[in-house]
Amino acid sequence: GDIASKHHKKVIDVIVAWELSNPQLTAVIRGIRSAKEAREMIGGLDLVLDDDDLQAIDDGLAKYNLIELGR
User: Fold this and answer.
1) How many Cβ atoms from other residues are within 10 Å of residue 6's Cβ?
2) Is the pTM of this model over 0.85?
C-alpha cells in the first residue's frame, strides 16, 4: 500500500517494478488467467522505484525471510 499510494499505482505495479529493478531475478513466471490481468500488470513497466522504495520492500521481504538480497 504505502509505496503504491505514493506513486498513485496499484500494488501489482509496484511488484512488477520491483521485479524489473532486481538484478538477481533473471525471469519471472506469472500465471495470467485473462487479458484483463495482463493489462493490469503492464502498469508497473513505467514505474521507477527510488532507493527508499526499494529498501522498504527489501526490508519487508527480509523481515519474513522471504528473500535475501544483495543489491
Assistant:
1) 13
2) no
